[in-house]
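This protein record is not my work; I was only asked to verify it. Take the sequence as given and treat only the tokens as open to question. I have pasted the whole thing underneath without changing anything:
***
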Amino acid sequence: MEQVLKSLTLEFFGSGQHKLTPEKLFETESAILLDVRSREEAASLSINLKAHENIECRHIPINEMPDRFDELPKNRLIAVFCPAQVRSSIVYAFLLTKGFEQAKVLEGGYNALTEAIKPGMLLKHIRTEEQRR
């Protein structure tokens, strides 16, 4: 934990190395959107992103993370999500201590995610994917 904390300098945070926008997430070849909200929150409003075949959505509540982090692959980009980025930041730091070098905090929480999947943006993504095939 000490090494992770020592690496979190002004240069690190100032350059945004810990963040990933929803748009950049959608552009990746293969990633996981890790929802760390409570079971109750996820049951009330789930996130699937089925139109984004390159994104696998997983839900592991923050309080279950110490017992379940081994369910995550270390060789893939993991975008950690919660509404206000508090829990996602905590889980991000935890994952770094466990060797998850590709973990990022999904920037902007709910607002950024819902903006990125509005009809115009979603249609653009679908057309781009169709052109790639």
The chain has one domain: 16-132. The domain at 16-132 is CATH 3.40.250.10 (Oxidized Rhodanese; domain 1). The beta strands are 19-20, 31-35, 55-59, 77-81, 103-106.
